[in-house]
Amino acid sequence: MRETNLRKTTVNGVLWSTLERFSVQGVQFVFMLIMARLLVPSDYGIIAMLNIFLAIAQSLIDCGFSDALIRKIDRSVADCSTVFYFNIVVSGLLYLILFIVAPRVADFYTTPQLCPVMRVVCLSIIINSFAVVQRALFVSNVDFKSQAKASLIAAFISGITGVYLAYINFGVWALVAQALLSTILNTLLLWFMSSWRPKWLYSWESFHELFIFGSKMMMSGLINTIYINIYPIIIGKIFSAEQLGYYSRAQQFADLPSSNITNILKRVTYPVMCKVQDDQELLLNTYCRLIRMSCFVVFPLMLGLSALAEPFIVVVLGEKWQSSAHLLQIICFAMMLYPVHSLNLNLLQTKGRADLILNIEVIKKILGVVLIACTAPLGLEAMCYGMVFNSVLSLFINTYYTGKFLNFGICDQMKEIVPSLFLSLIMLGAIHITVISISNPLFSLFVGWLVAVCIYLVIALLTCNKSMRELIHLLKNRK
To answer: Are residues 96 and 207 in the same domain?
Structure first.
């Protein structure tokens, strides 16, 4: 009965989380296509230069308290109110620091326009801090329906605003207005939909209890955030805003299937698995299914996107963005293992092993920085190949700890991964053979994806693929 309830909760959560993620991403994607034709790559490059400051600030504001609140089953009013006021105070201090250093950042990139843009964009840090607790409570209750409504409304209104401003030649400020308006609307809507309101109390006891777990999650998240954004920093500094624009578009498209699908599973299953963290067998069985099904979906999407990167970029963004295509081909291989990395850490997080997660991130990022130092002098493409190599190394590091402490190591996980990888490689070969002689980008894209879907699904059915059977079973019994 417990496993049945867990499955129902997970499936409903995944369905609503998927709706939220991909409806919002779909709306943003459409508006991005329109704006990409109205703006130039350097406009996106300027915004990409600021991503590290926004991401680091968000990690420090949250301080891992969201994960700590979700994991704590018996959370109190004092816990939530303490996190709320802590976030607001820290966000205000961080914004003040970023406001002061904005001219130095502009000098570093030799881009004067970056100073006023940074001071306006970073206002989203303060605005976001007002909704951290609401989001955590929605996630804890596996309520992604409310978040879907808020995110979709915010994305639609802010997207229309951004397109209009881009059309009347506001340039990079169209992207600034879109991002800031989206944050404001999303925060207001979450407050309106949530019944929770902060009380006038602050508990140092609650802070200390949450901080013990949350601080380690914050440090691991901060290390990961800094590492991810090292690439835009180096590209923006060594190369140019235009090349950073090409890289950021390629990274965004690679993230779309991989990160989004994984994050949907991760944020739904984390609160669900926290409820059964004491049942080791049920926990590992649930995790095995997640690994299988996420790889079954993500692997063909990533390899298919890699194979069709050039016609995809030309059709979607236009020929002026064609330089992004080869970068996208490489990055797709680095991102295809993202589900395995993320879900391994999610399993350790469920068991409260934030210390191990921190150790893993430190080891991986040290190796990653070494790779960046070795590949950056060789060019932008070499840096992308370094990302692929680092992703493979990370697989062994992540699975080492789950194998040691949870008896589910690299060999066990490869058994779940290999069938989907094998099917995806066959599909990749079929795409190349089919579209190699097609010169029209739109026709090439259409035929390539048609072949990919048919080949992959037919072989999966003929070989009675386990992940395929599980997905069909879940869809049939989703109610």
So the answer is: yes
- Total domains in the chain come to 2
pLDDT of 287-302, one tens digit each? 788 788 888 888 999 9
Q: Classify residue 223 as exposed, middle or buried by CB count within 10 Å of its CB (0-12, 13-18, 19+).
A: buried
Closest CA to 220 of 113, 341, 114: 341
Yes or no: say if 371 and 233 are a contact pair by the CB < 8 Å rule.
no
Contact 402, 408 (CB under 8 A): yes
Give which of 347, 345, 258 is closest to 295, Cα–Cα: 258
| Beta carbons within 10 angstroms of residue 300's beta carbon | 26
End residue of a domain, out of 197, 215, 234: 234
Q: Are residues 229 and 287 in the same domain?
A: no
Q: What is the pLDDT of residue 239?
A: 80
pLDDT digits (tens, 9 = 90+) for 385-415: 999 999 999 888 888 877 777 777 788 888 8
Q: What is the pTM of this model?
A: 0.67
Examine the pLDDT at 99 and tell me if it is beyond 90.
Answer: yes
Residues 176-197 pLDDT 10s: 999 899 999 999 999 998 888 8
C-beta separation of 114 from 50 below 8 A: yes
Q: Would you give the DSSP letter of residue 39?
A: S
Indicate whether 345 pLDDT > 70. yes
Pairwise CA distance, residues 403 & 201, whole Å:
43
Confidence of residue 274 (pLDDT cuts 50, 70, 90): low
How far is Cα 48 from Cα 9, in angstroms, rounded to an integer? 37
Q: In sequence order, which residues have a C-beta less than 8 Å from that of residue 291 and are 6 or more positions away?
A: 339, 340, 343, 413, 416, 417
Name the H helices within 336-440.
338-350, 354-375, 380-406, 410-435
Alpha-carbon distance of 299 to 355, in angstroms, equals: 30
- Residue 272, pLDDT > 70, answer no
Determine the Cα–Cα distance for residues 181 and 184; give it in Å rounded to an integer: 5
The pLDDT value given to residue 273? 65
State the pLDDT at residue 9.
Answer: 58
Whether residue 409 is found in the same domain as residue 427 = yes
Gap between the Cα atoms of 236 and 428, Å rounded: 33
Residue that terminates a domain, selected from 234, 266, 298: 234
230 with 272, same domain: the answer is no
